[in-house]
Amino acid sequence: MSNTNILYQHGTLALLVPGLLDGTLTMNELLQHGDTGIGTGEGLDGELIILNGTPYQLDGDGKINILNDEFTMPFANSHFADYAEMMEVEDINRDDLQSQIKEAANSTNTFFSIKITGTFKNITTRAVRKSSAPYDSLSKTAEKQNTFSKDSVTGTLISYHSPSLFDGAAVGGFHSHFLSDDRSFGGHILSFDSVTGSVSFQQFDTLEQHLPTANKEYMNHDFSKDNIIDDVHNAEG
Length: 237
What we know:
Layout: E1 6-10, H1 13-16, E2 25-26, H2 27-31, E3 36-41, E4 45-51, E5 54-58, E6 64-66, E7 72-73, E8 75-79, E9 84-92, H3 94-105, E10 112-128, H4 138-142, E11 145-162, E12 173-180, E13 186-191, E14 194-203, E15 206-210, H5 216-220, H6 228-236
Parallel strand pairs: 1-15
Antiparallel strand pairs: 1-8, 2-7, 3-4, 3-8, 4-5, 5-6, 9-14, 10-11, 10-13, 10-14, 11-12, 12-13
């Protein structure tokens, strides 16, 4: 039986800051740790969302692709879904939604996941075009992102909330990806005006942090020289 209390994380957001963007985990390996998740591909190749065991990618051109088992990633989260209904919302803006979720969750100092199914208004997402080695820093690579918008779209948001004491390993607060029901639109969420739908919640008591110890660049890099927190928040905000 799968352990639904564990959040699995490969890599850290901090390793992306200096441009350590090699794919160090395959999709086949990631799916052994969950049927739900988010991430990015080698060279920041698009934005990933895993729903019901199927991995989808919004690539830099705005196309949704289903990924094969050999697709590699420098960073990803996954878990086995066991969401409980939290609340129904109607035409609520993003800031108010996050405030209500935090209050209802009462889980500020641990990891949890939020799943929202519903209709989102004026939503904007992004994806980065895949880059090749030698890689630029995260901040420079993120400048090449493409943004995509919809006036109204129905779909699923998957978000992971990380406590502030883990800022850098993850991004403190919410990190959210989206996929439309018709599988034509998605990506890392930059903003939306409002959502009407159902909010579900799943809390984790264990973070399983997996590091790319076979990657020489990662093992030899001096992170003390990097502006990790600011660069992570600027890129992921």
